[in-house]
Amino acid sequence: MTLKLTNLLGAAAVSVAALSMGALAASADTIKIGTVLSATGPASFLGDPEMKTLELYVKEINAAGGVDGNELELVAYDSGVDASKARTFATRLVEEDEVVAVVGGSTTGTTMAMIPVFEDAEIPFISLAGAVVIIDPVKKWVFKTPHTDRMACEKIFEDMQKRGISKVGMISGTGGFGKSMRDQCLDVAGNYDVEIIADETYGAKDSDMTPQLTNIKNTEGLEAVVNPGFGQGPAIVTRNYKQLGIDVPLYQSHGVASKSFIELAGDAAEGVRLPAAALLVADKLPDDDPQKSVVVGYKDKYEGATGEPVSTFGGHAYDGLMMLVEAIKRAGSADPAAIRDEIEKTSGFMGTAGVVNMSADDHLGLDLTAFRMLEVKNGDWTIAE
Amino acid sequence: MAEFLQFAFSGLTVGAVYALVALGFTIIYNASDVVNFAQGEFVMIGGMATVFLTALGVPIPLAVVLAILGAVVVGLLLHRLAIEPARGASSVTLIIITIGASIFLRGLAQVVFDKQFHTLQPFSGDTPIVVGGASILPQSFWVMGGAVVIVVLLWAFFNHTLIGKAVLATSANRLAAKLVGINTGMIMSLAFALSAAIGAVAGVLVTPITLTSYEVGTLLALKGFAAAMLGGMGHPLGAVVGGLVVGLLEAFGAGYLSSDYKDAIAFVVILITLFVLPTGLFGRASVERV
């Protein structure tokens, strides 16, 4: 509903703009937008759904008459996780393909490599990667759609504060995701009166965390445990946690927000809490939730078209593309600078990640409501709030 | 005391798996002088094949047998297609061939199976047993018990069967073994099949605890190699002791020192062994092969 309304407003704004400029509406041009994603390789779990989402929705937008009668053309490259490849493709997008905007960058590494290219060429760039460094400090031409690990920490600690928990043990993966989130959690813990009283780590391929968890268990005054991590590690931590009979609440991160976590951790996952995007529980949102229509709409479309279960990562691509399309409509032109200005003015945009309100000093525009606190009950996610 | 026991259980469970991988290294090394870095892939094949067969509706016991047979076939093919054609090449060349084979097998596993992590139901439930304040999963007993059974069977095989003695003879002196009528080519095939089977059994036993995916073999091969080096390359008892020691060192290191260095411990073991005790704990006093 909200989306439709903004569409209408956008269309109205555009017709006014088109009348005054008289150029855009007259000739049906193609608007070229670019993307560089990690569609194959170790980060394909990010890039693959992102690529499919972009292709799906560009096709759909064109079938519905394009953006104000102008057809969208998606120029897509697959960089794997290779940052230097991503940079080469970014240069090609700018110099050969002459795109007006870019939605892409599956990983923080590839995104950071591409940023200088788009900054130099003055092309708006909406990144789909996680780390906070992408938009902090703010770069004029760079935006991003996914929530950050810092927000995940804040969401967890906020929930702990509500439950009266203040003494917390951490067990973190040493991979990029776990390490970065561990640092962010340590950084914000104080803001929520949370004290980290145990701090252990495990390697990416560690297969038994009982020694680390035994140390955490034996820490005096322990009230909860947080496990920033990704992949199979958190599932093993959860199993070991149950094995050792640790009876304080366990919090996982949004890094394991997928069904496979529950499958791998089995019964041990019962009662585990984690912050995650609304997309994961699309069907369970109450009907009056303003985000429900967006996430259910995207989920049904993606699952119907690909036959694969929806992931939050594809959702980030959806958010990026839709925000860009609305910005192009509002700008009423395919001029990169005009598009950039309009992206920055995005407000009240309802995406799969939450409500986006951008400003000159916030190129992410999400707040903590973007995360839902979930709890595993009877082998399924439930909304804990 | 409770935490000491907890660390010890953790170390023994993981160590038993390292020991089985190290045994695989040892058997192939003895029969052919090849250090087979694709040993970890046998563990992966055992676990992954069992997971996928059970997903297809095959009952677990049958799935386990089929997975082990599958690994044996892969082991035989590895020998026939990769090692045999390069016979007479230097050991460095052969090692590089096995590393290539291991990369190939990982790639193949991504296509045949998938890139996700999988688990198996524990064989006898997942209610931990509490011993002296430390809790241990029933599956850990399966892993340790399985390792003991395999070691006993191997010992009986090598010491009480003609064919086992033929393997020992081949490892002692290939030329002499050939001269007394032992089919050394067949013995080498047997060694690869045996190693693959042991690896696959380890994979099946440990999957309910550690989960499995196409790439679990890499790290296991390195840890198993460290264990085999520590015990003395080519010495079966050394492989078992080496595996348990590496597992225990990791658990105690992570528990009492810092978990940051858990994975580094195996490599420190390799380095110290090479510097201080190049032949390993049980290795014969250096018999240089020239």
UniProtKB/TrEMBL annotation, chain A:
InterPro entries: BCAA_transport (IPR051010), Leu-bd (IPR028081), Leu_Ile_Val-bd (IPR000709), Peripla_BP_I (IPR028082). Residues 1-25 form the signal peptide. One of its GO terms (biological process) is amino acid transport. It comes from the Bacteria. Coiled coil: none annotated. Residues 30-377 form the Leucine-binding protein domain. Gene3D superfamilies: 3.40.50.2300. Keywords: Amino-acid transport, Signal, Transport. Pfam families: Peripla_BP_6. Belongs to the leucine-binding protein family. This is ABC transporter substrate-binding protein. It comes from Rhodobium orientis.
From TrEMBL, chain B:
The chain crosses the membrane at residues 7-29, 49-78, 90-109, 129-158, 179-205, 237-258, 264-283. Keywords: Amino-acid transport, Cell membrane, Membrane, Transmembrane, Transmembrane helix, Transport. CDD domains: TM_PBP1_LivH_like (cd06582). GO terms for biological process: amino acid transport. One of its GO terms (cellular component) is plasma membrane. Belongs to the binding-protein-dependent transport system permease family. LivHM subfamily. This is Branched-chain amino acid ABC transporter permease. It comes from Rhodobium orientis. The lineage of its organism: Bacteria, Pseudomonadati, Pseudomonadota, Alphaproteobacteria, Hyphomicrobiales.
